[in-house]
Amino acid sequence: MFVLGKELNSDxxxxxxxxxDGNVKAQKVAADNIANVNTPGFKASEVHFKDALxxxxxxxxxxxxxxHSGHIPAINSSRxxxxxxxxxxxxxxxRIDGNNVDMDKEMEKMAESSVEFEAxxxxxxxxxxxxxxxxxxx
Length: 138
Hints:
mainly alpha, two-stranded antiparallel ribbon, 5 helices
């Protein structure tokens, strides 16, 4: 049972979950941008999470070590509060109506986040197979 708890609460699982959260948010924002491609004055948004996730991971590497069972574990507040960030792009539009949605870029973002999402779900499937084999004793 100890192995299962450790595996489910691992750093890898944290990264996969937060990456999936970011991908879902990116898909929603890209879909919103695409849905408003013909809305006059609409400004596209984009999701930023990869660099922030890397920073959280790097901060974890520098966190305090628990060297004695009586020590209180350090709580990494940046890890607990990590969320993807949505930023409105206020770049100039070349359209008369002021809309700055670029359909090609939005479709590229959708494809990229879809591929990343599939990769993260594959990591989860692999972890699930390993955990199942431990449970079944294989």
